[in-house]
TrEMBL record:
<dbReference type="InterPro" id="IPR044548">
    <property type="entry name" value="AF0060_NTP-PPase_MazG-like"/>
</dbReference>
<dbReference type="InterPro" id="IPR004518">
    <property type="entry name" value="MazG-like_dom"/>
</dbReference>
<feature type="domain" description="NTP pyrophosphohydrolase MazG-like">
    <location>
        <begin position="23"/>
        <end position="101"/>
    </location>
</feature>
<protein>
    <submittedName>
        <fullName>NTP pyrophosphatase (Non-canonical NTP hydrolase)</fullName>
    </submittedName>
</protein>
<keyword id="KW-0378">Hydrolase</keyword>
<dbReference type="Pfam" id="PF03819">
    <property type="entry name" value="MazG"/>
</dbReference>
<dbReference type="GO" id="GO:0016787">
    <property type="term" value="F:hydrolase activity"/>
</dbReference>
């Protein structure tokens, strides 16, 4: 049991057979974020194209693109850990503490 209420967690794996660097991973993150923005733009009809997909298809595509963004972000954390000595657990714990302080996560009593 964790100390947070309404706490959901998503775990994404470290990818094998890749040798990403900080710069290449950052560029990939921006590429994936652009694809996410493009999917959202299609969903909202903001790109000027006639949307030929059903809303659920577009929402599914948004979910897929969002997971691509998350995977690359996780991969970037592994790059920071392996090449620059950053402690991921400490960073995650610090991030969660920040979210608690801002009131985004409620602590169980």
């Amino acid at each position: 049991m964790n100390r947070y209420t309404e706490f959901k967690q998503i775990s994404l794996p470290k990818l094998n057979n890749l040798q990403p660097g900080l710069e290449s991973t950052c560029l990939k993150l921006m590429e994936e974020a652009g694809e996410l923005a493009q999917a959202i733009g299609k969903f909202r009809g903001l790109n000027g194209e006639k949307v030929s997909l059903e809303d659920q298809e577009v929402v599914d595509r948004i979910g897929d693109e969002l997971l691509d963004v998350a995977q690359v972000a996780v991969s970037m954390m592994f790059v920071l850990e392996e090449k620059y000595g950053i402690n991921i657990k400490e960073k995650v714990d610090s991030h969660i503490d920040k979210l608690i302080q801002k009131g985004y996560i409620r602590v169980a009593e």
